[in-house]
Specification:
Blueprint: E1 3-7, H1 12-21, E2 26-30, H2 41-48, E3 51-56, H3 63-68, H4 70-91, E4 96-102, H5 124-143, E5 147-152, E6 155-156, H6 166-175, E7 180-183, E8 188-189, E9 192-193, H7 194-209, E10 217-220, E11 226-227, H8 228-239, E12 245-248, H9 263-269, H10 277-290
Parallel strand pairs: 1-2, 1-3, 3-4, 4-5, 5-10, 6-9, 7-12
Antiparallel strand pairs: 8-11
Helix pairs in contact: 1-7, 2-4, 4-5, 6-8, 8-10
Length: 291
């Protein structure tokens, strides 16, 4: 069995995913925290030798940072992805690649989104994610690389998450009895627990390894929407906090509504989310209290 390289291995999804994959496969961790950079093509190519696959999770992962640092985000996300694909092409075109994209690419939606729905990114971060998806598609059709796209949706539940993302931010504010600051409050999102999201990727890897996959794009969603106001209330209840909710002006560059249709992932991968938001928040709170 060959090796699988995971870029962004020390991030929220990367850490949990590597722990699961290491039970079955030989994993090579690749992350800036390990002094390994996807913008360093020579380093990348060296790490790819002997690999059968790569799961690409590295790059800028925050919408606000994409807004604040657009050119840097384009470089990290788009040029970084291009480096990975060209490195595969040069080292061994038989290496498959899974790209970790985002529900942000759909833009503003009203109904439950399906994988083949129209794409309409409304901010720099989302544009870089979709640009990388297009590179995946192009390198597949132009050079014969085996590429896959997975779109994550509001993944929560890890201790190494960015503290300014909505779920950890609300949780920390609640645990310290500070006001929970909600930007807007009416936004509705599809929250997926980290354990469910990483289970989905493992199932996809297993299918690729066993050569039992034809579909190229998946999103990992619950099919259930929760407003961020509801999220704040659930967190206050879970933590038994004395926090009050403080409403602030919403950000102009944010998507306000996304709920995904999970049928495709269930049909092709046999995956569906098992952890409800209520139970997921309890698990997350328990972990945060311990640490």
């Amino acid at each position: 069995m060959g090796k699988i390289l995971v870029t962004g291995s020390e991030g929220l999804i990367g850490v949990a995913l590597c722990s699961k994959l290491e039970k079955k496969y030989k994993i090579i961790r690749y992350d800036l925290k390990l002094k390994k950079n996807i913008l360093n093509k020579k380093q990348l190519k060296k790490s790819l030798v002997g690999c059968v696959g790569i799961i690409h999770l590295a790059g800028e992962s925050r919408v606000p940072r994409g807004f604040k640092y657009p050119v840097r985000t384009i470089k990290n996300n788009v040029v970084g992805t291009g480096n990975i694909l060209e490195s595969i092409k040069e080292v061994n075109p038989k290496i498959w690649c899974i790209y970790g994209s985002s529900r942000e690419v759909y833009g503003e939606t009203k109904n439950k989104s399906k994988e083949n729905d129209s794409i309409n990114p409304i901010n720099v971060y989302a544009t870089t994610k979709y640009s990388s998806e297009l590179l995946m598609r192009n390198f597949c059709s132009n050079y014969g690389l085996e590429t896959f796209v997975v779109r994550f949706s509001n993944v929560y539940g890890g201790l190494n998450d960015h503290k300014d993302r909505v779920t950890p931010k609300f949780m920390i504010q609640a645990m310290t009895n500070k006001n929970i600051t909600v930007d807007g409050g009416k936004q509705i999102f599809d929250f997926v627990h980290l354990d469910d999201a990483t289970d989905a990727v493992v199932k996809l890897v297993d299918k690729i390894i066993s050569k039992k996959i034809k579909a190229k794009t998946f999103h990992f969603v619950t099919g259930k929407g929760t407003s961020i106001m509801e999220l704040a209330k659930k967190i206050i209840k879970t933590t038994k906090s004395d926090s009050k909710i403080e409403i602030k002006k919403p950000r102009d560059y944010d998507v306000n509504h996304f709920v995904g249709d999970p049928k495709h992932s269930k049909k092709v991968l046999g995956w569906k989310a098992k952890i409800s938001l209520e139970n997921g928040l309890k698990l997350y709170f328990k972990e945060m209290k311990k640490n």
